[in-house]
């Protein structure tokens, strides 16, 4: 336990010493928000920083222009730390991805210092397009996690949670098509798309109260 506490202290010291640089990194990403798969500014800031700290950096990794992989250490286990850095359309970094990126880099620096050579490998993965683009899906499909023993990331929140409730998402876009008809003379010739939409939405809403706690269904009419 004493050794573990020593390693924790060492990790904290490494992060504290880089605090100003990490803050500037976060502000640099926050000041120029970029949407999914367009995070070229954030990609450059993060890869340049990690390269300057002794990581072996692969830019434009896994066939994505704004993904990256930064590796330090050697041996087992291999621990991946993910950085996200894309913004939300219209409102910038309201989800705090600039903080996720800086936190991921901070953990990478700490693990690099604590593990040294031969005691484990740390992989800082740049994960683009979290906000609707599915960047992590491409990372998985293209082998980014093939030899990884554990993967983690940090997300800003008002409270502390080591195991947050995170569920997968699938989006469906449904269009209702009707048929025009003269409302006074021949209404029976028409097909009312609005009624179909309302009935469908109400049916889904009635079902929602019976769904299990690990299921969420939300809808929006645009």
Question: Can you put this structure into words, describing what you see?
Answer:
By secondary structure, the protein is an alpha/beta fold. It folds into 2 domains: 2-152, 3-Layer(aba) Sandwich (Aminopeptidase); 169-222, no CATH class. Helix content is 37%, strand content 12%. It has 6 helices and 5 strands. It has helices spanning 2-17, 19-30, 40-52, 97-115, 135-141, 193-208; strands spanning 56-59, 68-74, 78-83, 120-126, 150-152. A 5-stranded mixed beta sheet has the order 1-2-4-3-5. Helix 1 (2-17) packs across helix 4. The longest helix is centred in the middle third of the chain and has 19 residues, at 97-115. It is elongated. The model has no long low-confidence stretch (mean pLDDT 95).
Structure, briefly:
The chain has 222 residues and is α/β, with parallel strands linked by helices.
Describe the protein's topology.
Blueprint: H1 2-17, H2 19-30, H3 40-52, E1 56-59, E2 68-74, E3 78-83, H4 97-115, E4 120-126, H5 135-141, E5 150-152, H6 193-208
Parallel strand pairs: 3-4, 3-5
Antiparallel strand pairs: 1-2, 2-4
């Amino acid at each position: 336990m004493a050794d573990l506490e020593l390693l924790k202290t060492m990790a904290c010291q490494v992060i504290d010493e880089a605090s100003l640089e990490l803050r500037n990194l976060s502000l640099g990403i926050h000041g120029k928000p970029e949407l999914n798969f367009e995070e070229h500014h954030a990609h450059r800031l993060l890869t340049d920083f990690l390269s300057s700290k002794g990581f072996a950096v692969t830019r434009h990794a896994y066939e994505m222009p704004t993904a990256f992989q930064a590796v330090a250490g050697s041996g087992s286990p291999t621990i991946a730390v993910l950085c996200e850095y894309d913004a939300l359309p219209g409102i910038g970094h309201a989800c705090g991805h600039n903080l996720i990126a800086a936190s991921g880099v901070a953990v990478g620096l700490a693990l690099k210092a604590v593990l040294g050579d031969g005691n484990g490998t740390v992989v800082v993965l740049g994960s683009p397009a979290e906000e609707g683009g599915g960047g992590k899906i491409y990372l998985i499909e293209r082998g980014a996690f093939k030899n990884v023993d554990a993967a983690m990331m940090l997300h800003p929140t008002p409270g502390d949670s080591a195991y947050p409730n995170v569920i997968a998402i699938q989006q469906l876009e449904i269009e209702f098509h009707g048929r025009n008809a003269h409302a006074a003379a021949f209404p029976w010739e028409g097909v009312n798309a609005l009624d179909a939409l309302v009935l469908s939405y109400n049916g889904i809403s009635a079902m929602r109260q019976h769904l299990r706690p690990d299921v969420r269904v939300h809808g929006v009419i645009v």
